[in-house]
Specification:
The structure is a homodimer. Chain A is an alpha/beta fold. Chain A is 43% helix and 15% strand. Chain A has 2 domains: 7-203 and 285-306, Alpha-Beta Barrel (TIM Barrel), CATH 3.20.20; 217-277, no CATH class. The first copy, chain A, contains 14 helices and 11 strands. The longest helix of chain A is centred in the C-terminal third of the chain and has 16 residues, at 291-306.
């Protein structure tokens, strides 16, 4: 098993097959540059950005790295179309789509030599996107943080392997080399980590956010928005439990509470009204480390597992 | 990575580190004998049995195999105490506890040389049971069928590895050698499969049950009983969806619908009022095979993954 030269490292021209998950507010150009400089694929999480904000972030990251990087575009963002145009104008090497079907954008991206990937939580969308010309698929299990589907990584990745020809990246529940090795055993040629990079030195989220990740156990997340049609995994707080309770009887009030809640967590560390999106692997993360250490330890550990316990 | 000689094969004196999950009604002596004869650990799922019924099943399996086997005891069963006594009287090699804390039974079992294991969905119970003298822990992710917790296999197994000294078995989402290899990469020394054995030739469940597993996709399960305090993953049917709907407004009615619903699925293949317990890996199972083929293909495939694609 090769963890350094895979279909994903070849496609993306990166050193290690580790992608930064697309994280609105938390996935800044600073964090993305750190991931790219460490040999992974840094990803600007464009979230609800418009053209102007994204352009700024892209110009910023170009001053910090000459390595490939990506922009994640949430298809629920009303500015999605103009963000795709921005990516092309700015000659961003790669775009990752989330929360929808990006098929209509794929021909234009291909014409402009932008690599396209999409995050999926089921095989149906993945197969449709492969037919539409996507370059790679990121399968994301429901143990992941933020917006999620309902199938776990252990089941989703082999299913996608059985259905797809394009390269496959595994996401959801991956915080160390053991999970990277496991995902490769399941058939993935790369992994995506989000939560693990939140607890990195270079990540710009509020200290309270990082503290919560370090302290939490594997059972300390809840899923908000399940009844509202947009499930998202967040750290269990009084606020998150209150949202879950309100979803059934007062869905409008729950929706209102969620508006701006991620930003409040990221920017202000607001424990009263912030939604701290994170995956179940918070329970495996014990310290804030540099992005470089996270990436290298993960790859080395995965290699060690496959080399029968010998040092590499 | 060794898939034939592990702490689990040594503890249980079995050929392959594959355990049959404890399945009420479906885990008969016939299926358990087939699993043990094929080199795994067959498991009689005692479910709601009393002493007399379990004694019959144990006497029956002894006529079919001379290999080690286990009895699974659900601690919610009011006859749990007498089933423990039965296991000891009948000199059953191994007992697996589910749905509760079996600490009080462990000294007696140890005195009588019965190996004890327990299915857990969090590290807290696992650590308490290790202190109480359990011989091995089975960590079960929430992609599993039947009664489940809330953490996925990808996250639960590494966490348990970090907390435990006793041997560890992974369960939840495992239907083939890819998942077996993945679970070993995460740190397990054995795997438990339930759903995969439901779709075996030797399994005595109604043909409709097997058909449903073969036809289903990875998203074709739902969790019933979540609001009632006993979450169980079942195949998505009209019945299952109706139970989920009623749980909130008419919990008593939902409870009543669930009584006897597993038996109706197993014995009668009753699609109208049966609960077809099964894990998300139904979406990876495409044919009914013999237990021997299932076990050997799983081990051979896992070995192949770790041997860099060479035939073994």
């Amino acid at each position: 098993m090769n963890f350094r030269n895979t279909r994903i490292t070849q496609l993306l021209k990166i050193k290690y097959p580790i992608l930064e998950g697309g994280m609105a507010w938390a996935g800044t150009s600073i964090l993305a540059a750190a991931v790219s400089n460490a040999g992974g694929l840094g990803t600007i999480g464009s979230g609800s950005m418009d053209r102007q904000l994204l352009t700024q972030e892209i110009k910023k990251i170009k001053t910090m790295t000459d390595k490939p990087f990506a922009v994640n575009i949430m298809l629920l963002n009303p500015y999605a179309q103009e963000l795709v145009e921005t990516v092309i104008e700015e000659k961003v090497p790669c775009v990752v789509f989330g929360a929808g079907n990006p098929a209509k954008f794929l021909p234009l991206l291909k014409e402009n030599n932008v690599i396209s990937m999409a995050v999926v939580s089921s095989e149906n969308l993945a197969v449709r996107l492969e037919r539409a010309g996507i370059d790679a698929i990121i399968g994301e299990g429901m143990e992941s943080g933020g917006h999620i589907g309902d199938v776990t990584t252990m089941v989703l990745i082999p299913k996608l392997m059985d259905c797809l020809s394009v390269p496959l990246v595994a996401a959801g529940g991956i915080a160390d080399g053991r999970a990277m090795a496991a995902c490769f055993a399941l058939g993935a040629q790369g992994v995506q980590m989000g939560t693990r990079f939140l607890a990195s030195k270079e990540c710009q989220v509020h200290e309270e956010y990082k503290n919560k990740i370090i302290k939490a156990g594997i059972r300390d997340t809840v899923i908000t928005g399940e009844k509202l049609g947009h499930s998202a995994r967040v750290i269990r707080t009084k606020f998150a439990k209150r949202v879950c309770e309100l979803e059934l009887d007062c869905p409008d009030q729950a929706e209102e509470m969620l508006v701006g809640s991620l930003k409040r967590a990221v920017v202000n560390g607001d424990v009263e009204e912030g939604a701290f999106m994170a995956g179940q692997c918070i329970g495996l993360i014990e310290q804030v480390e540099s992005v470089k250490d996270i990436i290298e330890k993960t790859v080395f550990h995965a290699e060690k597992i496959f080399c029968g316990g010998q040092e590499v």
